[in-house]
Design a protein that fits this description.
single chain, about 240 residues, alpha/beta, elongated, binds adenosine-5'-diphosphate, binds magnesium ion
Length: about 240
């Protein structure tokens, strides 16, 4: 038996298959036929492969944290209901390339909710990419000259769901506004966007700098879009933790 196991280990390594603990694979399974044994073994290989792919997909998505729906206090943030989030979490809107926008002041849970949707999309097998607008602009600007940016852009281009966080924090130059417009325009009809912004749409002109580009961008973004205009106090400020207590 030990000889057989040693041989399986060596063959697996030769074939570059992941090491599988074959003894535990068959424990409790009495009278397994040779065909069933192969079936069990191949099923385990497939499970490991899928796990690895899911792990890589999740890491590539670049979520800064994992956030859950359960840890969100809907009593504190009343601009959106748990039912609305649960509805969004069926993720069917990704199939229709719908967008979701969370707008409102800092600290009210916009990024938290965007991360809940991103995590759920990953659970369901979608390709996801998370970036702040600042990162996205850097990537778009340097994709031709930086391998790292090119790789990040590949992840974004392959994603069914792209989160663009912190839109409106920094004023954009003319070139940057154009890049953002092209990005949203290219995404329309084929990629879902989740956008968080500390500015209402009527204020986007302030950081975009150009009326025509802003109108054209919003036109494409809002065409198929669920918009949450959120208000309320900053959760961070209300639940501020100090060192001394
Ligand atoms: P925003 O993106 O609107 O600035 P965040 O989503 O980053 O705000 O929220 C700031 C912090 O407060 C995060 O740690 C987030 O998890 C937490 N938070 C915000 N709103 C809530 C809420 N209603 N319930 C629980 N945690 C919240
Ligand atoms: Mg945020």
């Amino acid at each position: 038996m030990n000889k057989a196991i040693a041989s399986i280990e060596s063959l697996s390594s030769e074939l570059r298959l992941p090491p599988i603990d074959v003894t535990s694979l068959y424990t409790g399974k009495t009278s397994v036929t040779p065909l069933q044994a192969v079936d069990i073994y191949l099923s385990e290989l497939l499970r490991l492969k899928t796990d690895k792919q899911n792990f890589i997909r999740r890491r590539r998505a670049g979520l800064p944290f994992e956030k859950t729906l359960d840890s969100f206090d809907f009593g504190f943030q009343r601009s959106i209901t748990k039912e609305q989030m649960l509805k969004l979490m069926d993720m069917t809107w990704i199939e229709q390339s719908y967008n979701v926008c969370f707008l409102g002041p800092p600290g009210i849970g916009k990024t938290h909710l965007a991360l809940v949707l991103a995590g759920k999309a990953l659970d369901l097998g979608y390709h996801v990419a998370f970036n702040t607008l600042d990162d996205l602009i850097k990537i778009l600007k340097t994709a031709d000259i930086s391998k790292l940016s090119r790789r990040k852009l590949n992840v974004i281009e392959a994603a069914s769901l792209v989160i663009v966080d912190e839109v409106g924090f920094m004023p954009l130059s003319g070139d940057e506004a154009n890049l953002f417009f092209s990005f949203v325009s290219n995404a329309a009809e084929k990629t879902s966007l989740v956008i968080t912004s500390n500015k209402g749409f009527d204020e986007w002109i302030d950081f975009m700098g150009d009326v025509t580009i802003t109108t054209a961008l919003l036109d494409r973004l809002i065409h198929h879009c669920e918009i949450f205009n959120m208000t309320g106090d900053s959760y961070r400020l209300k639940h501020r933790k100090t060192i001394i207590g």
